[in-house]
Specification:
The protein contains eleven helices and nine strands. It is α+β, with helices and mostly antiparallel strands. The two termini are about 35 Å apart.
């Protein structure tokens, strides 16, 4: 049946592609023989077909891709000797605030966190490709406005910012960081204890001395522990994302 063949073509292209494929790229597989509605139907069917397998088909910011399920992580990690990047508490909290409050200035981040945001923290997020400067705020000094990138969405396996976990009014800043950063992260009990004992009011040097591991492209796993007397963050809704 011709539709089964087209679906197989779609599946093969997605499995072989080194990067996520957009709808336009998927339509290019068929010339003018099919329309977007057909491709969407086959994508939905493929998601169902792969429900019981170690891979899953997901829609992220830059398109569609197959990725391994979290349950496969402990086995796949044995094939990769390198450890995942480590990020300090300061880096994770800064990223979380930018994700939920963007566009946001450095001064606004510092007001929410209650401590100074050091230049290395911002640079680390920029070097990772998770944040960028999108303009300046029309106020005294014209401070830079920071926002997250499509790379951030792709690494967190999110199609858009509306898919970020919903936050509530008055949520502590460390819990805010966890909601955006703990994407299906298999943290050890020892690491969780270290995070719980860390104080967000410490100096930048102290904060940067307690790194935790994060693997890009994973979903969130909540942590119950958090710092004592954390600074409260006003409620915010995920911002709109331009198409």
């Amino acid at each position: 049946m011709i539709e089964d063949h087209y679906k197989k073509v779609l599946e093969t292209a997605l499995l072989c592609a080194p990067e996520p494929l957009s709808m336009n790229e998927l339509l290019r597989l068929y010339g003018e023989e099919v329309v977007a509605e057909n491709v969407i139907t086959w994508l939905s069917e493929l998601q169902v077909d792969w429900q019981e397998k170690g891979m899953e088909l997901v829609h992220i910011a830059t398109g569609w891709r197959f990725q391994s399920r979290l349950s496969m992580r402990e086995y796949l990690d044995r094939m990769i000797p390198e450890k995942p990047p480590k990020y300090s508490r300061a880096v994770l909290e800064t990223l979380a605030i930018i994700a939920y409050r963007q566009p946001v200035t450095r001064g606004e981040i510092e007001e929410i966190r209650g401590v100074t945001v050091s230049t290395p923290v911002i640079k680390q997020l920029e070097d990772r490709g998770w944040i960028e400067i999108i303009g300046v705020k029309d106020t005294i000094g014209r401070p830079s406005l920071f926002a997250t990138t499509k790379q951030f969405l792709d690494d967190m396996a999110l199609p858009n910012l509306q898919s970020l976990p919903v936050i509530e009014d008055g949520i502590p800043v460390n819990d805010l960081a966890q909601q955006v950063i703990n994407f299906e992260q298999a943290l050890s009990t020892e690491t969780i204890t270290d995070i719980a004992q860390e104080n967000t009011a410490e100096s930048n040097e102290s904060e940067d001395s307690h790194p935790i591991e994060i693997s890009p492209g994973q979903e969130a796993q909540n942590l119950n522990e958090h710092d004592e007397d954390p600074k409260q963050v006003p409620g915010a809704n995920p911002p709109e994302v331009a198409p």
